[in-house]
Structures are given as C-alpha cells and as structure tokens.
Amino acid sequence: MLPPEEIHKSRAAARAKAWCLICFGLGLLLTNYPLLQIFNQPTSLGGIPTMVVYLTGIWLVGIFVLFRLTRVLGHYSDKD
Q1: What is the value of pTM for the model shown?
Q2: Do the Cβ atoms of 76 and 9 come closer than 8 Å?
C-alpha cells in the first residue's frame, strides 16, 4: 500500500493530466468555425481587427495555461 503522500501526489498528477486534455479540447472548440465566425466582423478594437484580437488572446491564454500545467506536472513528477 502506498503512503498517503504518494497517493496525493499520484492523484494530483492525474488531475493535472486531465486538465491538459480538457484545455486541449477547449482550445480546439475555441478555434473552430462557429466561434471564429462570430469574431470575423469588419469591426476593430483600437484599430486591430476583432479576429486578430480574439486569436491573439486565445494564443496568449493557451501559452499561460500550458506554462502553469507543465509547472504542476513537473512538481509532481517522479524525480527523487
């Protein structure tokens, strides 16, 4: 039987891996046709087309989320 610390570590790592899959699916949905069509308008925000602002925002949020998830997964890796 595993000690309680190891059980917590394995559950947290599994939770972080599940969040990786959830974020991947969410990223696919956010860059799919129906949502892209909403932002494909002739309007702009500060002189920048809304499609560019939307895609850049998704890209930046995706990088931040991946950074945080890799830090969590690195923390729970089996490096002793």
Answers
A1: 0.81
A2: yes
Tokens in use for 26?
């969410």
Contacts of 76 (CB under 8 A, 6+ apart): 9, 10, 12, 13, 16
- Pair of tokens at residue 55: 């895609």
Two tokens at 74? 């690195």
SS3 per residue for 14-71:
HHHHHHHHHHHHHHHHHCCHHHHHHHCCCCEECCEEHHHHHHHHHHHHHHHHHHHHHH
Residue that the structure tokens 């892209």 belong to: 36
The per-residue pLDDT for 39 is: 94
Cα distance between residue 64 and residue 72, in whole Å: 13
